[in-house]
């Protein structure tokens, strides 16, 4: 009896020269000697999205030691390593074999961050599954069967052998990826007990190669990070043992210093520290609490029923800000809305860089207070709420401040960056604040209330377009096409992988279909969606077994929903 492999080869030779739809004959499962090839979806023509395929390998063939996937942290580290190896091997074995995407083998390669993803997975027994796409070869719209046979029967097995088998890798390198990921999780878990919101390890390499290349900068100018002695903490990790570095305490922390001395570089490392990083990234032991959210001004964004009254109130003409609605937010209103939206879904800390913030939202100095009385200024600046955020709600703030010394009055910790070297200048900052009083008057009145919950109106979250009931696509990292609307995520700076954007797009529809029924609040719907993913995995978002989804946080999902311009809500007082 002919093997599945031989049957597949016979079909590909038989359909050679026929119309492209003939490829549908190969859809299904094909058993090879060491693995099973699953052709889940055949593309409609050589110019369409490539065909979706999977490889499944039994544990006896993959042969990874059980210790490398013994818990979730290790399994995520291992599968990210395998996905990166598969993607590299796929590039080596892809060949142009006709028109369109003919001959392409592609897997979504992880970036510097290590995220749970669907490209490569390993189950508790050690069985491995890899999901990727292939461009089935054609000339015009005619099948190139012999080329397809070489692609599926030679090149794909070569990629599997070079990437998905333990024997293909240096065991020490595999273990390094596994251990590094487990150490990062352990390090993050240790923060709260020590009263910290972030940790930056001694020796970390923080600068990146460029704004579009997130790999570590490698030249003679790079200064490895060294903690100020007063902020240095030591933490015992499962594999690396005792590591030392700068612990950033909960509360209000300022990062100050001259221009180009590394303030924003440090904040960006903390911003990305909500995710783990691959070995060699330089930030493997730079970790932050998972609830830290980067906030910036975002002129022109839409805002749907957000209570921004703690920051902006008493607008001219009596417009209420307790359920603020606009299709074209200013810098200050957008920043206020983004803060309240982050708090709505559980943010534990805010990250703000003065360079990307609205000046009038951040500070109103004594001279401006004298010129424009408070009763004529609707904005309560962030400086007058930042301490309340922490004292009343436990929300910390880490701020890059280069030009507003008024913030010295409200800071718990002040770190200066001087030629990329940090120093603890908290006591000096307090002395300066006492020596040079600003004369400004605090403008916050009363406690900082978080009083409303928002309940999305289901009909305002409409994914339909034309005759299609559901039309949802993504374009790159920062754009989601949702029905007739375009969601712009450019200002959502902690979105780091296109797989996250795809998963968020799918999660918007998942939440709409299951939870956003006109009774469930926005925060509840997002929480329940994330709970479902935690319990069932990312595949709950897409039944097609796609390999291009990556894990995301509630804050980025909320950011996407909040930037859907058609969104309408009603508010309830808690």
From TrEMBL:
Domain MRB1590-like C-terminal, first and last residues per copy: 472-570
Domain ATPase of the ABC class C-terminal: 173-444
InterPro entries reported in the protein's UniProt record: ABC_ATPase_C (IPR046834), ABC_ATPase_put (IPR019195), ABC_N (IPR046833), MRB1590-like_C (IPR049069), P-loop_NTPase (IPR027417)
Family matches, as Pfam families: ABC_ATPase (PF09818), ABC_N (PF20446), MRB1590_C (PF21117)
SUPFAM superfamilies in the record: P-loop containing nucleoside triphosphate hydrolases
Ranges of residues in domain ATPase of the ABC class N-terminal: 6-165
Protein name per UniProt: ATPase
Species in which this protein is naturally found: Litorilinea aerophila
């Amino acid at each position: 009896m002919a093997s599945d492999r031989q049957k597949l080869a016979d079909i590909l030779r038989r359909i050679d020269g026929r119309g492209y739809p003939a490829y549908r004959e190969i859809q299904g499962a094909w058993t090879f000697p060491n693995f099973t090839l699953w052709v889940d979806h055949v593309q409609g023509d050589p110019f369409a999205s490539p065909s979706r395929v999977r490889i499944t390998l039994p544990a006896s063939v993959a042969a990874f030691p059980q210790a490398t996937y013994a818990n979730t942290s290790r399994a995520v580290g291992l599968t990210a390593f395998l996905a990166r190896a598969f993607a590299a091997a796929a590039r080596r074995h892809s060949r142009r074999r006709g028109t369109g995407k003919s001959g392409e083998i592609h897997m979504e390669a992880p970036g510097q961050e290590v995220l749970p993803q669907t490209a490569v997975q390993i189950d508790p027994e050690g069985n491995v599954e890899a999901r990727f796409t292939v461009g089935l070869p054609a000339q015009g719209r005619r099948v190139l069967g012999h080329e397809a046979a070489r692609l599926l029967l030679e090149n794909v097995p070569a990629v599997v052998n070079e990437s998905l088998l333990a024997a293909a890798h240096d065991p020490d390198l595999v273990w390094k990826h596994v251990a590094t990921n487990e150490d990062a999780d352990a390090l993050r878990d240790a923060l709260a007990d020590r009263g910290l919101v972030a940790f930056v390890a001694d020796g970390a390499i923080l600068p990146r190669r460029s704004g579009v290349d997130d790999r570590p900068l490698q030249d003679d100018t790079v200064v490895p990070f060294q903690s100020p002695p007063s902020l240095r903490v030591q933490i015992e990790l499962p594999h690396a043992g005792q590591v030392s570095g700068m612990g950033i305490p909960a509360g209000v922390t300022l990062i100050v210093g001259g221009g180009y001395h590394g303030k924003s570089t440090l904040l960006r490392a903390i911003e990305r520290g909500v995710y783990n990083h691959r070995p060699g990234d330089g930030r493997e032991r730079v970790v932050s609490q998972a609830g830290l959210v980067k906030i910036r001004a975002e002129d022109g964004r839409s805002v749907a029923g957000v209570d921004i009254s703690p920051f902006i109130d008493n607008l001219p003409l009596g417009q209420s800000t307790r359920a603020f609605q606009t299709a074209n937010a200013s810098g200050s209103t957008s920043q206020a809305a983004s803060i309240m939206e982050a708090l709505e879904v559980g943010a534990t800390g805010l990250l703000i860089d003065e360079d990307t913030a609205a000046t009038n939202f951040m500070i109103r100095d004594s001279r401006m207070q004298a010129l424009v009385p408070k009763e004529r200024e609707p904005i309560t600046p962030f400086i007058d709420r930042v301490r309340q955020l922490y004292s009343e709600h436990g929300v910390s703030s880490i701020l890059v401040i280069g030009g507003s010394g008024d913030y010295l009055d409200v800071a718990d910790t002040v770190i200066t960056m001087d030629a990329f070297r940090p120093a603890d200048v908290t006591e000096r900052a307090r002395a300066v604040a006492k020596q040079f009083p600003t004369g400004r008057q605090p403008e916050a009145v009363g406690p900082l209330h978080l009083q409303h919950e928002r309940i999305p109106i289901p009909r305002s979250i409409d994914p339909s377009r034309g005759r299609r009931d559901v039309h949802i696509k993504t374009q790159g990292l920062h754009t989601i096409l949702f029905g007739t609307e375009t969601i712009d995520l450019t200002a959502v700076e902690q979105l780091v992988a296109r797989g996250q954007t795809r998963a968020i797009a799918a999660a918007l529809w998942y939440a709409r279909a299951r939870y956003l029924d006109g009774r469930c609040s926005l925060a509840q719907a997002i929480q329940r969606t994330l709970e479902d993913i935690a319990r069932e995995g990312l595949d709950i978002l897409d039944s097609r077994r796609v390999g291009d989804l990556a894990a995301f946080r509630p804050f980025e999902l909320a950011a996407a929903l909040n930037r859907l311009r058609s969104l309408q809500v009603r508010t309830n007082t808690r």
